[in-house]
Amino acid sequence: MSERLRIALTKGRLQDKSLELFESMGLDCSPVRNPGRRLIHAIPNYPLDAVLAKASDVITYVEHGACDLGVVGKDTILEKGGAFYEVLDLDFGCCRFALAVKKGSDFYGTYKTRRIASKYPNVTRAFFEGKGMDVDIIKIEGSVELAPILDLADGIVDIVETGATLKENGLEPIEDVAQVSARLIVNTASMKLYKSEITDFLFRVERKLGEQA
Ligand code: PRP
């Protein structure tokens, strides 16, 4: 009998796209769409149980084996890291990390240490270390676009999707930092223990992505 796999899905922007993908593969995701008060949702026509979680918790669950699989953004993977297999680029939730500054400001035209605000300090540190540039990083939890407007920072490193938030706040992207999209991740022990179940699931996902390409 095949083992039921457990998958953690990132709540919010990636949630709907994940369910759309699974439904297009023939999985009945109605229990996830109508959750009531339940936190674990059994897919009735495939041996898979789904939980919804914040992005960072998806990685924690998969890393510790509480879930065998996860769908999470590359942004969170780059920021948090961890020991798991990143097996597939799901090709949705596509956006980028960019360095943005006040429109018209000359970010590189000074020798003084620049101050960068970001929700992603590790991504920011790695980016500027790669340039051999010393910067002060300020961790902000939300609406990071405010930091340059309030003169708290010379620039920000943040997710840019349409660019509308930057534009509406008088900021402009000056450099790409990394491309971001949703990834399928797998717990390292599950990959060995439930090889045939995981292979079957990955095969179905890959086949669907191939059809959509
Ligand atoms: C992200 C990001 C920007 C915005 C960019 O925030 O931090 O603020 O989206 O999108 P745009 O380029 O299409 O304008 P999100 O809405 O995810 O909220 P958060 O601040 O809670 O992360």
Q: Key features?
A:
213 residues, alpha/beta, six-stranded mixed β-sheet, five-stranded mixed β-sheet, 9 helices, 11 strands, 35% helix, 31% strand, elongated, binds 1-O-pyrophosphono-5-O-phosphono-alpha-D-ribofuranose
| Radius of gyration, in angstroms, nearest whole number | 20 Å
| DSSP summary: helix tally | 9
Strand arrangement within the widest β-sheet reads 2-3-1-4-11-5
The major beta sheet can be summarized as:
6 strands, mixed
What would the principal axes of the Cα set say about the shape? elongated
Report the end-to-end length measured between terminal Cα atoms. Answer: 33 Å
SSE class: alpha/beta
Helix content: 25-40%
Give the DSSP E fraction (strand runs of 2 or more residues): 25-35%
The small molecules bound here are:
1-O-pyrophosphono-5-O-phosphono-alpha-D-ribofuranose
Mean of all residue-level pLDDT scores: 96
Q: What is the subunit arrangement here? A: single chain
Low-pLDDT ranges:
none
Q: What does the secondary structure layout of this molecule look like, with pairings?
A:
Elements: E1 5-10, H1 13-24, H2 30-33, E2 40-43, E3 48-53, H3 55-63, E4 69-73, H4 74-80, E5 85-89, E6 95-102, E7 114-118, H5 121-130, E8 135-139, H6 146-149, E9 155-160, H7 164-168, E10 171-180, E11 182-186, H8 188-193, H9 195-212
Give a written overview of the molecule.
It is a single chain. The chain has 213 residues and is α/β, with parallel strands linked by helices. The protein has helices at residues 13-24, 30-33, 55-63, 74-80, 121-130, 146-149, 164-168, 188-193, 195-212; strands at residues 5-10, 40-43, 48-53, 69-73, 85-89, 95-102, 114-118, 135-139, 155-160, 171-180, 182-186. The protein contains nine helices and eleven strands. The strands form two sheets. A six-stranded mixed beta sheet has the order 2-3-1-4-11-5, sandwiched between helices. The radius of gyration is 20 Å and the shape is elongated. It starts with a strand and ends with a helix. The mean pLDDT is 96. Bound molecules: 1-O-pyrophosphono-5-O-phosphono-alpha-D-ribofuranose. Residues 142, 158-165 line the site of 1-O-pyrophosphono-5-O-phosphono-alpha-D-ribofuranose.
